[in-house]
Amino acid sequence: MEGPDRPSVLRHPSWADFVAGLKPGPEKFEPRVRQMLVRVDGDIAMAWTPYVFLIDGKVHHCGVNHFDLVREDDRWKILNVTSSSRTVGCTE
Q1: Contact indicator for 64, 53 with CB cutoff of 8 Å
Q2: Residue 90: which residues within 8 A CB-CB, separation 6 or more?
Q3: CA distance 59 to 14
Q4: What is the mean pLDDT of the segment spanning 60-82?
Q5: Which of 39, 59, 61, 73 gives 20 to 30 Å between its CA and that of 85?
Q6: Mean confidence (pLDDT) of the chain
Q7: Listed residue (52, 55, 51) closest to 27, CA to CA
Q8: In this model, does residue 85 exceed pLDDT 60?
């Protein structure tokens, strides 16, 4: 959602779209994760990962990535990814 009082974007991409967005280009991408929070209850977990994303050393945007995880056969697997993105209020 973008608006004067809430300049952010929520994303819930398909796996194909999420992976496609990870392809490098000529720019230097530098994601910085801050104060990650992980909660585990048995075989389910979530990771709340606030981030700031720099391109060529300058802040481009910030937000939160949220991962839902499940443990199957003693291995953790990402079940879902949701992220927010905004261009205001971002600091290195």
Answers
A1: no
A2: 52, 59, 61, 62
A3: 26
A4: 95
A5: 39
A6: 87
A7: 55
A8: yes
Q: How far is the CA of 66 from the CAs of 13, 33, 56, 88, in angstroms?
A: 12, 12, 25, 20
Residue type for position 74:
D
Task: State the DSSP string of 18-76.
Answer: HHHTT---SS-EEEEE-S-EEEEETTEEEEEEEEEEEETTEEEEEEEEEEEEEEETTEE
Confidence (pTM) = 0.70
- At 2 the pLDDT is 45
